[in-house]
Write a structure and sequence with these properties.
Organism: Luteolibacter pohnpeiensis
Low-confidence stretches: none
Shape: elongated
Keywords: DNA-binding, Transcription, Transcription regulation
Distance between the termini: 82 Å
Protein name: TetR/AcrR family transcriptional regulator
CATH class of the largest domain: Mainly Alpha
CATH topology of the largest domain: Tetracycline Repressor, domain 2
GO molecular function: DNA binding
Pfam families: TetR_C_13 (PF16925), TetR_N (PF00440)
Mean pLDDT: 92
Length: 204
């Protein structure tokens, strides 16, 4: 009788990482179960479902890994050892570097992997929406800290700044996928910081 089940050399952590790269490159909808199984060493259907439960569950784990590693821009935004402006700028530097790197798929998985989803994949759409919302929360916290510390004036348009930086960060995903260079994006990032500087508290 043929043996079924997981291959002895199966490495679950590595499997999630490989799946992350597939979802990141091709998106949830167009990444097929057969492609995932092939990438994971030719897992049988039974082994795949035993390991991950479903394609959706595997995507959830892959997205969580992305947000904890490559996509963790909140790491820079929440730094308290440097001024809020420096944290915001460093976030832009790291985000542009990551999303234009040739060491992995370009762009942002949280932006690109969940587009054009049919209604039956509403749970996946919610996952990526929540991931993107966490970035807005980190941006809000950074800008709030700048106002509280006096880096930015009390009359700063906080909501406007949040949406401006959030839109720019998410736009990098498309620009990076389209092959726009890191140097070009950094030129835009420096211009963006001029808007921040326009709210700088210059009172001595």
């Amino acid at each position: 009788m043929a043996r079924t089940g997981r291959p002895r050399e199966f490495n679950r952590e590595e499997a999630v990482r490989k799946s992350m790269a597939l979802f990141w490159q091709f998106g949830y909808e167009t990444t097929s179960l057969s492609e995932l199984r092939s990438e994971l060493g030719g897992l049988s259907n039974a082994s795949f479902y035993a390991a991950f439960g479903s394609k959706e569950q595997l995507f959830s784990e892959a997205l969580a890994l992305y947000m904890e590693s490559c996509g963790n821009i909140a790491k820079e935004l929440t730094r308290k050892d440097i001024p809020a402006r420096a944290a915001m700028y460093e976030m832009l530097v790291q985000t542009i570097s990551m999303q234009t790197s040739t060491e992995h798929p370009s762009g942002c998985m949280a932006v690109l992997a969940g587009t054009n989803l049919p209604q039956e994949n509403a749970n996946v759409a919610t996952m990526v929406k929540q991931a993107r919302a966490s970035v807005r929360t980190a941006l809000k916290d950074c800008i709030s800290r700048a106002i509280a510390s006096g880096e930015l004036r009390n009359d700063t348009d906080q909501t406007g700044l949040i949406h401006l930086f959030d839109t720019f960060v998410k736009g990098i995903a498309i620009q990076g996928r389209d092959g726009i260079s890191a140097d070009q994006l950094m030129d835009s990032a420096r211009l963006l910081m001029h808007v921040w500087d326009g709210y700088t508290n210059t009172t001595s």
